[in-house]
Specification:
This protein is 15% helix and 25% strand. It is built from six helices and 21 strands. The protein has helices at 37-45, 76-99, 197-204, 217-225, 233-236, 256-265; strands at 124-125, 132-133, 143-148, 164-171, 174-181, 209-212, 230-232, 240-242, 252-254, 290-293, 302-307, 312-317, 320-321, 335-340, 343-348, 354-358, 362-370, 373-381, 389-392, 405-410, 416-418. It is elongated and about 150 Å long. 33% of the residues are buried.
Length: 419
Amino acid sequence: MQNDFVPQGPTKPAPTKLKPTSAKKTNQEQAVPFQTPDQVSEHDQGLATVPIDPSATPPVRGSGHHWFNLPWPPNRVEIIAIGVVLIIAIFGVAGFAILHKPKAVETVATITPVKQAAPKPTTVASTLSGLPVQPEINQRPVVGVMIENSQEARPQSGLSEAGVVFEAIAEGGITRFLALFQDQQPTNIGPVRSARPYYVQWSEGFRAAYVHVGGSPAALQNIKDWNVQDINQFYNAGPFHRVSSRPSPHNMYSNVVDLANVATQKGYKSEFTGFARKAAKAVTPPTASLIDLNISSSLYNVHYAYDAASNSYIRSEGGAEQIDNNTGKHLTPNVVIAMVVPVAAGAKTAQGGSYSDYNPLGSGVAYVFQDGVATAGSWHKATNTAQITFTDASGAALKLNPGQTWISAVTAPSKVTYK
């Protein structure tokens, strides 16, 4: 092929004039030697290698043909350096992300409290004593037992477990008790003795099963006439037994559990109104710590000493503290009541004496001792089956503390002293 750029003949090639390089070029720019068109063509076709002038400055990598004028291709050291930089960058970004991880927004749920009904109480107030009991206990028949109080009968058994006790003279100045049971049922109670009309009338206010061993002629007739819920050892037999440790007639005993079962079998029910009640609250200092009731004689007069620790009254009779023979513990009623009840000599006894003839109906003066204080008021009982009630000087119901209530009949207000 003819080279259009080479002149014909053996002419000497003219010297090549090189343009002066601009002074503005940096040492990073590569000096490229001059090439003829044929050399360029051979390079393009891969037929010849461009000769390099050994005296020329070696080309510098990154002469502006790559981004940011970075050297390319990188050598091994640069590759390692780049890798280290990338690793550091990756860990740096990851660490930053972990340390600056946005906190999760805690969603606080709004809980609307559910109002729960107050638990129903498992106990109720005893109709007889006012103390807390299981509801079914109020469905038991009240058992009223006649208890002897002669010297030969002391100490009696079961009196500490009675809810209410009435005390009055039977005859000859000898007192007797009517003990009413419902909350507690001692398995040993006695000595059991005979009936009297006024005890029957007090018992009828509680519609009790009236327990006795015989009775005065008037009382036995009254029991029939008044349709009393009767358990008489002479006629009904039942759960009575005599003990050998005491002489007759001071040795008749019974069991309140068995007596209540007999009452249930007979269909006896005790529907009655209990005493008006209040919460016990001892007064400091007490104003009635010592109480004396002159009932008949020194053997039967009663003394009470207030015990602030238990808010109750320690009972003594005939100069000695009275105890329950079942437990050996003192008799300590929570409420003591002295009521003035009219009394006269009644029918003659078989021994030539006279039965007491109390009139338990109507009203009279009463003194109520509780919480260490004395309150003067009145007692009221309209009919045999009406409950006895107590009022203060203004006529308002006199409310009693829960616990055992001991009610003693006296013949005049002067028979009651306290300090």
